[in-house]
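Protein modeling request. Please complete all fields; requests missing the sequence field cannot be processed.
Requester role: graduate student
Desired output: 3D structure, token encoding
Chains: 1
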Amino acid sequence: MHGTIRAMHDPVHHTLEEESQLVQIRLQKLRQLRELGLDPFAIERYETTHPLQAIHDEYEQLEGKTVAVAGRIAAIRKMGKATFAHLMDSTGKLQIYLKADEQGEKYDLIDLWDLGDYLGVQGFVFKTRTGEITVHVQSFTMLAKAIRPVPFPKEKGEQRWYELHDVEQRYRQRYLDLLVNPESRQRLLARCRMIREIRRFLDERSFLEVETPVLQPMAGGAAARPFVTHHNALDREFQLRIALELHLKRLLIGGIDRVYEIGRVFRNEGISTRHNPEFTMLELYQAYANLEDIMSLVEELFRHVAERVFGTTVFEMHGVQVDFARPWQRIRLMDAIRERTGLTEADFETLEDAVRAAEKVGIYVERKDTIGGIIEKVLEKCVAEHLQQPTFVYGFPIDTSPLAKREPDNPRFTRRFEGYLFGKEVANAFSELNDPLEQRARFEQQYALRQAGDEEAHPFDEDFLHAMEYGMPPAGGLGIGIDRVAMLLTGTDSIREVIFFPQMREG
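Delivered output (507 residues):
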């Protein structure tokens, strides 16, 4: 058997024909294993004593002792009567070492190994002459065969037939990306740890985590177009939720004073490096709290996540350094616009004024735009990119904030803020409107906009108004886009890098 089949590592570009040849070679190896009564796919269980990283971490206690470990073969170096290989599992990598005179005829089975195969080994722990922690293999079992070649990164001096660099392929085949690109794995695992720490932070402050419906008769709580689906048994249309807000507020009314949800929301909008049609949102509501309380909560939350997940409060992106140990900057929306454009609140008194003001700064105005919508466009186009340091921008127009309380001294604007970091919006918060009569009037205004053609105007939710009429406490509310925050804290410009399986255009 020795030398009958060898791995194919040609320094050529990937083609379908070459991949087909490699698959055929691997299938032939699988047939040989089965003929020998060693079908790897028949194995159901392999008992290990340690994950791979633990062999490194506990070397002083494990030196000379027998262990059982398992993982994928990530590298093989066969040198006559000795073979070195690396196994990889979810915790790390570990070198293994086999000697021909110890393995006997089983040593020839190494010729049937390929990169990506799963292997279980038993042996004792030692260090090589170069100081690398290694398992000296006494017995091994193939646990699964990789039929397709896995594009692991090249070892030093090694040539491979291809590697996984193409961005689109990385997103479409995320399982390979996780397997062979440590940076991708680190980003995505950091996102998972962030969510865990957000939960820990809120749970420690007596917030209750809940789940609310994804399928809703009417999707509200944000300005966005929903996806629509049909329920066959009920013979009616439902919408996928665009926000978590209105059901969480119903729970406030029901007496749960601190409530949150981390869940998927769906918006029927474009796909870009900043937007995915389904994304993960944190929303929370705290009874008897106001906008300033939520600002403090956001500062504490970001500081907690930064320290627990990344071990630092200092982050850098495109040469800009921020420190979450410091308080966030605070600026009124119209002051931020004035500082960047020279436009003042007086420039937005009427819709005609607002259109002229937008044109002065080169912004196209659509027919459906309101004064508030134009003001927010100016914020997005002229101000946002300059908000690199963590900043709360507060005082948003009432016609784009139908669920927030009015400012007492300026009723054109509301008690709402958006949080910005590295020029991107990461949070949205209100002192929540709890007057059912005013909420009804706001919904009526939004309904008029919808009738005039604005598909993103808030729907008229009579059931929510009915709930509010039983009494809703004053409260502060917050929404944070988890994907956007993960993108910025891991230092990437694309939201797809922090979503395990992003939506992609057909290719």
